[in-house]
Every structure is written in C-alpha cells, then in structure tokens.
Write a sequence for this structure.
C-alpha cells in the first residue's frame, strides 16, 4: 500500500573528508530485504510518530554498508576512510547510550567502545589505544549514536520537508518491517531523489536505510544483515588495553587541530534536504603541521563569496575556499555558494 504525506589523523585532509561524509550521507543504517509480510495497515504519520517516540533498543547485529557516494581520494586521510565499496561491521548497543563497534580490516580490526563516560579506540594492527573522555553534547565521530538513533535523527530532520509515504512491507534480517519513503517536497534543491527506511514492525527500530540519487543505483546502502534484540553482556561496553599497548589520552578539543581564535562555529544554512554545513577547516599544529596539497581536488570556482575548489559526488558537493572555509551538502555547488555568501 502507498499513502502520501558523521578522524584520527590527516589534519585538513581528514577534516574535509569528514565534512563530505557527514554532510553528504543521510544515514548509517540497509540490509537484505526479501518477502513482503502481512502487517496491520499504518499511515505515514503514525509510522513516523512511532519511530520518533520509540525507546532505543538493546541489540547486537552485523551491519553491511554499500558505499557509492563517489568521494574523491583525500590526500593525507586514512586509505580506508569513506572510500567506495562494501564493508561490514559488528555492532552492539545497550539501548542506554553505551555501544561497541568492531570493524574488520585486512591487517586486523579496529574496535570502538563507548561506556557512557569514555570512548576507547583500539587498532589491533599497530597496537595503539586512544582514550577520549566524553563531554556534555559530545557525539563521537566513529561510534556516535548507534544506527537506530542515527536513522531516527534523519527521519525527524527530513519529515518536515518531505512527502512521506508507506510503500508496503518487507523483511529485513529475518524481521517483518514497514517501508517508509521520504521524497523531497517540490522546491527542495537537492541532488537526492528519495530515502527509503525499513522500520521494524515490533520495536519501530530502523533496520534499513537506502539513499537514492539521480542514478538508478543507490548512492548509499548500509544496515543489518542480521540482528538480535535484547539485553547485552555489560562487559561488551568496557575496554582494557592489552598488556604493553600504549594509551594516548586525547581531548576532543586538543587533538592536534586548532581553529583561529575568531573562527565561527560550524553552522547549518537552510534545513531539510538542501541544508548546507558551513565551517572553518582546522589547521594542523605540532610536528605534523605540514598541510597536504589539495590543489588537485575538484575544479576552480568563484563567486561573491570568494574563490576555491568545488568537489562533486554522487550525493552532493563541497566547496573548499581559498580562505579556509568549507561548505558541504546534498546539493549542487551553486547552492553552496549561496550559503557561503551569508
């Protein structure tokens, strides 16, 4: 039935990669969908309301990501950051803000553990551990919110500028689900065509999120291949570095990046589908202060806002200005230019 209605190293390069990934993706969470189970009818308004009102659930699962964003290779950024291709990870959540993420790599595994007060990052390949104390309002770039919370955030932000519909039912990771579809309202200046979310029929947890651009294939497909709901072992949300592993104490405000004293805080210009994130690229300090050469990225552009380079992807664009600003969104470069003028 159908009814209307976000880096550990790399300085400026890592910051640009993060800005692109965060601003151009509209979610974290797709899985394998199959049969169409018989579920009670629900209106789009009822389904959206139930998603936003549902309590986060404790769960464990395997997340699969198919990334076709088309982000360029950023000099100085980790080779496996934001590149196109498929990947998997294991996730655990206690439903109360504590979580664990395990990302396999050819040379080992990266593990991220958030216990509510501290986030740990451990790389088994180079045997290094980083301890990052949490702060009020802090959202870690890697563990962040769990997938279900991230998808709820997306639905909440886009619903006011979308045509919302329920496009039947599906089955994801063996669980019956409703298919929620958000399409940009007329007048929204975005390169994205629609977002489709599979919503678990019982828990109202988003199990699947597919982002469609101008082409036939999704630009991002990420989510649960398998998932189990229920209480998790508390030991999953604690971390003790292995013997002999050095620990770096890292404050999010003193990680080798600095902003000029008068640098404005990042701001969002607009809302919904054509929202643009505008900020200042942090400088790199210390012995690793040499900046990578980004002059080969994108194409030269200029306007009333100044001059710089525009980078386009399958899900939007970014402008890196010559005076150190960056703007990114799921829009064309001209929309970014307008935002930079404000």
């Amino acid at each position: 039935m159908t009814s209307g209605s976000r880096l550990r190293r790399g300085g400026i390069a890592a910051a640009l990669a993060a800005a692109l990934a965060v601003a151009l993706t509209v979610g974290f969470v797709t899985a394998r969908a199959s049969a169409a189970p018989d579920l009670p009818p629900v209106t789009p308004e009822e389904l959206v309301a139930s998603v936003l009102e549902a309590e986060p659930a404790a769960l464990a699962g395997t997340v699969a990501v198919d990334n076709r964003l088309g982000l360029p290779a950023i000099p100085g950024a980790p080779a496996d950051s934001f590149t196109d291709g498929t990947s998997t990870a294991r996730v655990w959540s206690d439903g109360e803000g504590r979580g664990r993420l395990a990302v396999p790599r050819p040379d080992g595994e990266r593990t991220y553990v958030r216990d509510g007060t501290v986030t740990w990052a451990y790389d088994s390949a180079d045997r290094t551990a980083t301890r990052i104390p949490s702060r009020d309002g802090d959202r870690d770039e890697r563990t962040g919110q769990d997938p279900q919370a991230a998808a709820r955030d997306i639905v909440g932000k886009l619903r006011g500028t979308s045509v919302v519909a329920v496009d039947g039912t599906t089955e994801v990771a063996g669980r019956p689900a409703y298919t929620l579809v958000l399409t940009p309202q007329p007048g929204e200046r975005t390169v994205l065509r629609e977002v489709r979310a599979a919503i678990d029929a019982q828990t109202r947890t988003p199990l699947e999120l597919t982002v469609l651009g101008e082409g036939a294939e999704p630009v991002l497909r990420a989510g649960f291949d398998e998932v189990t709901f229920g209480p998790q072992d508390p030991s999953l949300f604690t971390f003790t570095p292995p013997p002999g592993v050095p620990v770096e104490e890292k404050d999010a405000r003193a990680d080798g990046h600095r902003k000029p004293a008068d640098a404005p805080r990042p701001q969002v210009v607009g809302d919904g589908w054509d929202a643009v994130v505008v900020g200042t690229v942090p400088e790199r300090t210390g012995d690793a202060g040499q900046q990578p050469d980004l002059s080969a990225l994108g194409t030269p552009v200029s306007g009333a806002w100044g001059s710089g380079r525009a980078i386009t992807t399958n899900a939007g664009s970014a402008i890196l200005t010559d005076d150190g600003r960056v703007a990114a969104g799921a829009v064309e470069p001209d929309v970014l230019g307008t935002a930079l003028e404000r």
Remarks:
- Residues 56 and 89 are 20 Å apart (CA to CA).
